[in-house]
Amino acid sequence: MTGAKIEAAMSEGAKLIIYTTRNCGACDHALRDLRADGIDFEERNVMVRREWWDEALKHGVTVPIILRDGKVEFGWKGEDGCAFF
Asked: For 17-46, how does the pLDDT look when each residue is reduced to its tens digit (9 = 90+)?
């Protein structure tokens, strides 16, 4: 997610949904940056709930997957992410 997109999310008050998994550097970086920037988000670790796994699979097979206002983004700041299947 670019700085402009983060700022837009903050200004609109939109809540992000981020699909993650354990042992994923890109996921860890995304979570760290979102928290540091004070972004309101819901983390959905695909290894915790089967429904989150299924939801994430509708978009792709790598995390992080970020959803906001019907838009889907993959990876974090140039990092491709991690396969979760």
From this structure: 999 999 999 999 999 999 999 999 999 999
Give whole-number Cα distances, 80 to 12, 45, 49, 58, 66, in Å.
27, 17, 23, 18, 12
Looking at residue 41, which CATH number applies to its domain? Answer: 3.40.30.10
Instruction: Residue 77: give the domain boundaries.
Output: 3-83
* Number of domains into which the chain is organized: 1
Asked if 66 and 2 touch (Cβ cutoff 8 Å), the reply is: no
Task: Give the whole-angstrom CA distance, residue 23 versus residue 20.
Answer: 9
pTM score, two decimals? 0.82
